[in-house]
Specification:
Length: about 260
């Protein structure tokens, strides 16, 4: 069974006071939620402060990126050991903003995924096509390459622990959400790709949708059988909106 997962990606937002206040409001709002997991991904500098606010709550901590090495001469990078120490359970990897602005490649994402798993962090692996790729009919091809390169060297047992996030680049921060049908088509495709490698384990992998998720589109997205949660950017900075998203209805078990 796949427990729906709702993750707030705060991106480069959140000075300490703001981060603490936002985390406290999410904590309060998520307290009574059953049958779903909620996590927030503050910037690195706010992880420790947010961890304190979330102590003993149902809201988990995620990081937005990491290096694959444990330590070394990698100026500006943060390692899996550091993320574990500060209390992260999840780490977002290969977000399109990292790929687009910071030159992350599929090969780097693959190393990061393997390292995250080796350090008992759950990787949230982001894939998705650009507008140009969608318009030229390459969506499934692009996603196939990204998924294959990031994951398919893994054993089935490792694939079970991964979360995949399908985030069409044209829907991120644009207010232009994919229709539930467009998202479902790609989610099902991704699950079938995972099945090729991992057999029935693929039915256990959570596939999140990301890109302009808002309180007014969450319920329709979550009705789709292969959408197992969402990765929320802009709307996760507003506690009320994020909590409403996490309260999506109807709650439904996915098998
Ligand atoms: P958005 O961002 O919700 O602001 O579109 C999603 C993401 O980048 O994860």
């Amino acid at each position: 069974m796949r427990i729906p997962l709702i993750v707030g990606n705060w991106k480069m937002h959140g000075l300490l006071a703001e981060a603490r206040a936002l985390a406290a409001a999410v904590r309060a709002g998520a307290e009574t939620l059953n049958g779903r997991e909620v996590a927030v991904a503050p910037p690195f500098t706010a992880l420790a402060a947010v961890r304190e606010v979330l102590q003993d709550s149902a809201v988990a901590l995620a990081a937005q990126n990491m290096h694959w090495e444990e330590r070394g001469a990698f100026t500006g990078e943060v390692s899996p050991l550091m993320l574990r120490e500060v209390g992260c359970q999840f780490v977002i990897l290969g977000h399109s903003e990292r790929r687009q602005y910071f030159g992350e490649t599929d090969a780097m994402v693959e190393q990061k995924v393997r390292s995250a798993l080796a350090h008992e962090l759950v990787p949230i692996v982001c894939v998705g096509e650009t507008l140009k790729e969608r318009e030229s009919g390459q969506t499934l091809e692009v996603v196939t390459t990204q998924v294959r390169r990031a994951l398919l060297a893994l054993e089935a047992a490792a694939i079970r622990r991964v979360v995949v996030a399908y985030e069409p680049v044209w829907a991120i921060g644009t207010g232009r959400v994919a229709t539930p049908q467009q998202a479902q088509e790609v989610h099902r495709w991704i699950r079938n790709l995972l099945r090729e490698k991992a057999g029935e384990v693929a039915a256990e992998v959570r596939i999140l949708y990301g890109g302009s998720v808002k309180p007014d589109n969450i319920d329709d997205l979550m009705k789709e059988p292969d959408i197992d949660g969402v990765l929320v950017g802009g709307a996760s900075l507003d506690a009320q909106a994020f909590v409403r998203i996490a309260r999506f209805s109807p709650a439904r078990e996915r098998e």
